[in-house]
Amino acid sequence: MSKATVSFTSIAIACGKLFGNIAGLEKQALAFKEELNKNVQELHKAKVKVGIYRKDGTGCAIATAFIDGCVEAGLSQSTAQKTYLPTFKKAVADGKPVTDLNSQRKNGKGRKGKVGKKSELSELLVKAFNHAEGASFEELCATIEAGFEDAKYDSLYEGFKDYLAEAGYEIK
Fold this sequence. Notes:
This protein is mainly alpha-helical and 172 residues long. The chain has helices at 3-45, 61-72, 77-94, 120-130, 134-149, 156-166.
């Protein structure tokens, strides 16, 4: 055997081991997901409500326990709160199995509606961005984002609703 053949066979062995490791981890991930969905079903059947997580510990005990579990498993508190808690909440609420751990991820289907057609909402948003006081809109977004990170708001939507309510607007 030539030196190149020996080197290529070493690479092939390494690739085989990697394939085997990946297959094993995929089986393990599938088992974890099955157990997750079994637990979610148990919470759903018991009509458990997952509330708002607050860093100071004054939020929902279930949400706090979920975040603590994520952190114990090596995730950051922020990632657990922003990425995985919404998925967990939704799954417990509707009882449907978790298929994608990150329900916040875009579904890749692109913009809804007809291409080139501007929605009424986009027209309102562009007015806010292009308004002479556009900097105040940027400050509002930063304030809402900070409230979201501090767990004051459970979603961006709630942040905007709170802002509008404080400004005296009735939200339907």
